[in-house]
Design a protein that fits this description.
Length: 522
């Protein structure tokens, strides 16, 4: 990789993804707020080995992402969204550089540069690159593992198999079993299709499995040794087996990702059909690993019960390379290519340009100025259409990517700021914190664990159905629940509580109550 190429990829990542690091917003409910509490428990509660949430162990995610983010928090002296977003941006930059590396080695340097930029300018990457999550970190290690396997294919160096298993182990340690599924399925499918049975045996029967056992198994063994046997059992039987077979969250039909892919692939969706056709017709066999990487990943995601749009991240790099390879074959823009460029702009920016028409049906964005958003998006579309009709391919791509960059900056610096009060739990947390400082204790009923604890600076008691009535008779008690839940319980315990606050956070209506029992003086 040349310094010139690295500089441009770095610059594009800073322009498109970088603004999200400095977005004027808080940790958002639900996931980001929970991760913030995990970080707080890790740094202030000294729970470094086993992540904790609301004072209890948190088995949903491995600790690697939290360790890295906690290191940044310790460096800057506080827990902020920017700390988590910095790790996300570094991971996104790493994925772009790996996209460049794979495309350059398989095709050529020009395709590598374009593929990296296509990856960075994809809607799903722009979204995931600007939220506090560990999916981008897992994607980076998945790419490193697959790259190691592809290098092994061409060099037969056995050390690369060890590297493959090391990167796979780190992918698992970033997010969970999916980190193993993506690289292993890519290896299995590509070697079976190529009928390379000997190579398949060498990879799957390699002692590199000991690396995964040492990193992931060693961490679980240490957790068991230090008294977290229930935590280990929860990971193995609920998080791994349960999510795969019968997910307790994000359950969707098997065709969910086929319907979602055209949306998350914007603005490149119009280019995708012809890119796939060209790739199937023209590519050499060694390059078909990209297609099997995509198809095997999409297949395992579709079969798994729990589904979320973010899970598609690891299958985007091969699509970015395939689309870039198609564009590099065009010497001059054809009429169909011009149509694809214009259509990509309309599909990406069109809904924003029409924002003023359907704003009244979207109360979630009631604070955003519809005129300003319409002018910004509409201007970008006009410029893109003019350029698309009269310019060469290079200028068309530059304007399209510049439009995506401007949109990303506008969204992160304006839209996110306007939406922040709606998604932030700070008002709820600050209200509860003020009561807790005056001797009140807080309990929740059917509220997801840990989504307000970081902002309030205190742990919440999570109440069950049988505990609720006894809790209502105690003095100096607060109860946080959802409005829909309260409708079912009001007749049973309503006379024991006084409503003291109502909050709309992340499309949920929360109610805060104080018990009517005689208040003691602490």
């Amino acid at each position: 990789m040349t310094r010139h190429d690295m500089f441009w990829i770095l610059l594009v990542s800073l322009v498109i993804i970088g603004p999200g690091i400095f977005a004027p917003r808080d940790f958002w409910v639900e996931d980001e707020a929970r991760y913030a509490d995990v970080l707080s428990n890790m740094i202030h509660g000294n729970h470094w080995l086993v992540p904790h949430l609301n004072g209890q162990f948190y088995p949903d995610k491995p600790p690697l992402y939290f360790w890295l983010t906690a290191a940044v928090c310790l460096l800057i002296g506080k827990i902020t969204p920017a700390a988590g977003l910095f790790i996300t941006w570094l991971s996104t930059l790493g994925c772009a550089l790996m996209t460049y590396r794979i495309a350059t080695r398989m095709i050529d340097r020009q395709t590598g540069r374009l593929a990296a930029i296509v990856f960075l300018a994809t809607l799903l990457v722009i979204i995931c690159g600007q939220i506090v999550r560990m999916d981008m970190l897992m994607t980076l290690f998945v790419m490193l593992a697959i790259d190691a396997y592809m290098m092994y294919n061409s060099t037969e160096r056995s050390a690369l198999i060890w590297l493959f298993y090391l990167c796979t182990a780190l992918a698992v340690f970033s997010k969970g079993p999916l980190g193993m599924a993506f690289p292993l399925l890519t290896v299995i499918v590509t070697t079976i299709v190529a009928k390379q049975w000997g190579r398949l045996r060498r990879v799957l029967l390699h002692p590199g499995w000991l690396v995964i056992a040492g990193i992931v198994g060693g961490w679980l063994a240490l957790s068991w040794y230090y008294g977290y046997a229930d935590y280990v059992r929860d990971i193995l039987f609920k998080q791994v087996a349960g999510r795969a077979v019968k997910a307790f969250s994000h359950r969707e039909p098997i065709y969910f990702y086929l319907m979602l892919l055209p949306l998350v692939l914007l603005p490149w969706t119009p280019f995708f059909p012809r890119a796939i056709k060209h790739y199937r017709d023209e590519t050499y066999d060694p390059e078909r690993v990209l297609m099997w990487w995509f198809l095997s990943g999409l297949g395992i995601l579709s079969v798994i019960s729990g589904k979320l749009f973010i899970y598609l991240l690891p299958v985007l790099p091969p699509l970015a390379i395939i689309i870039a390879a198609r564009m590099q074959t065009l010497a001059e823009p054809t009429q169909l290519f011009r149509l694809e460029v214009i259509l990509s702009s309309l599909l990406t920016l069109g809904p924003l340009a029409l924002f003023i028409l359907f704003k009244q049906h979207l109360p979630i964005v009631a604070t955003i100025d519809p005129v300003l958003l319409t002018i910004v998006a509409g201007s970008m579309i006009v410029v893109q259409i003019i350029v698309g009709l009269y310019s060469k391919i290079r200028q068309q791509m530059m304007i399209l990517i510049a439009g995506i960059a401007l949109l990303s900056i506008f969204m992160s610096q304006y839209v996110l700021r306007e939406l922040n009060p709606y998604f932030s739990g700070n008002i709820v947390g600050n209200t509860i914190h003020s009561y807790s400082e005056n001797g009140y204790f807080i309990g929740t009923y059917q509220v997801r664990r840990g989504i307000f604890t970081f902002q309030s600076g205190t742990n919440f008691r999570e109440l069950g159905y049988d505990e609720l009535q006894a809790y209502a008779q105690q003095p100096n008690r607060l109860l946080l629940t959802k409005a829909l839940v309260w409708e079912r319980e009001e007749q049973r315990i309503g006379q024991s509580f006084i409503l003291i606050g109502e909050f709309n956070v992340a499309n949920e209506h929360y109610l805060l109550f104080r018990t009517t029992a005689k208040v003691f003086i602490s």
